[in-house]
Specification:
The structure is a homodimer. Chain A is of the alpha/beta class. Chain A folds into two domains: 71 residues, Arc Repressor Mutant, subunit A (Orthogonal Bundle), CATH 1.10.10; 113 residues, NAD(P)-binding Rossmann-like Domain (Rossmann fold, 3-Layer(aba) Sandwich), CATH 3.40.50.720. Chain A contains nine helices and ten strands. The radius of gyration of chain A is 20 Å and the shape is globular. At the A-B interface, helix 1, helix 5, helix 6, strand 9 and helix 9 of A face helix 1, helix 5, helix 6, strand 9 and helix 9 of B. Chain A binds a DNA duplex through helix 3 and strand 2.
DNA sequence: CTCACATCGTGATATAATTAACATTTAGGA
DNA sequence: TCCTAAATGTTAATTATATCACGATGTGAG
């Protein structure tokens, strides 16, 4: 396993491959080629092989990949051989939706705490959880050894919320607030900016209109 | 305005710039340099100038950019000089959250319809809207000339839902379902895969653990 | 056993994106 | 008016990513 720098796009595709392999495995298929994976997820066969090559040799020349093996390897690479506890800060519409989002649980993520500092929200039940005051973040994060925080607060309180998470020991933040968080070097942040995603689409719609 | 191929990353950054400029404008600041924008959004000054250069010359050498002017230009480039009607298919937790998401409205997007084929959800009120059967998609899309669809249905029904949207005339889809949609060439799709986003984080958490 | 075929892993090549460097232009003061 | 400082727009260099092409290896038929 080479310790080279791995493109983020490779990680994203690896996640897609692994989910595709889960489907394939469920169908009882034992072996699969890079071409079939490529077909299934909409990339080139060479891309599939290149992505996998960053992490080792998982296939057999002339044959292909063993589905179960490759699935296990991809999950391992992504760190999904264990479950990950996570907390959500911001119990608005989006935060509440994420607490109940089944997709997270299916991929190994367990939401173990939801926080807000809006008094009208504290105490509200979401699934088996109860919304807590943000002062409780530290306690819960330490108790469950949480490394992942999901930020669904308004932009104006995102910086504060992020600091609470980081001080409590969180090392990775999924940020839905449309602002740039500045965090220590040992904390990973990825943004999901919903409006920006739509704006990519409007940009392309306009481009086409002009032609 | 050069008709060159523009990197998607440039569009994403343009969206970020424009939101940053809104803040700056609100503070009453009249002029800004590429360096200050860069500082504010966490990229390099050269990157800011390069991104803008794809679309024209908006600054004055030795001076910088007029904030209001540049804001107007960036919004125009993204197609945000007009409002965009959009529909949401899938009235589960995520879909419901997006209907009420204020960030969309603030950036010019109006949700004009929410659909589901779950009878227990049809008729439910979300904001000023009422969840409708998916058979109504075509009617609403045509009535409001909707070009943008947001897909928040489970993976298993995503393909069907996408087809309903496309047949009704939608040309751009924001897909939250964790599957690869295959669509006609004149339809733009962008995926937001929430689990994948978390998996990027777990990958990096594991990487660090190893070192 | 050998051959034809399928398919991987990878080094070489091509393409794309970012960063750096700089010539050019403007503002403002002596 | 001329000089300095600031900051753009743009070309060139660098770095990163994706594609291609092919040698290597395993399978199965004859």
């Amino acid at each position: 396993m080479k310790a080279l720098k791995i493109p983020e796009a490779t990680i994203v595709r690896l996640s897609v491959y692994s989910r595709f392999l889960e489907q394939v495995d469920k169908k009882g298929i034992v072996t699969i080629s890079s071409g079939e994976i490529a077909e299934g997820v909409g990339v080139s066969p060479a891309q599939v092989r290149k992505d996998l090559a960053y992490f080792g040799e998982f296939g057999t020349r002339g044959v292909g990949y063993n589905v179960k093996d490759l699935l296990r390897h991809t999950l391992k690479i992504l760190g999904l051989n264990a479950r990950w506890p996570a907390v959500v800060v911001g119990a608005g519409n989006l935060g509440s939706a994420l607490v109940s989002y089944r997709g997270f649980r299916e991929r190994g993520f367990d939401i173990v705490g939801v926080f807000d500092n809006d008094l009208t929200k504290i105490g509200k039940r979401l699934m088996e959880l109860e919304v807590m005051a943000t002062e409780k973040i530290e306690q819960i994060v330490k108790q469950h050894n949480v490394k992942i925080g999901i930020l669904t607060v308004p932009a104006s309180s995102a910086k504060d919320a992020a600091n609470l998470l980081i001080n409590a020991g969180v090392k990775a933040i999924l940020n839905f607030a449309p602002i740039v968080l500045s965090v220590p070097a040992d904390v990973e942040v990825r943004d999901i900016d919903l409006s920006t995603r739509l704006e990519i689409l409007t940009f392309h719609l306009c481009l086409k209109e002009m032609m």
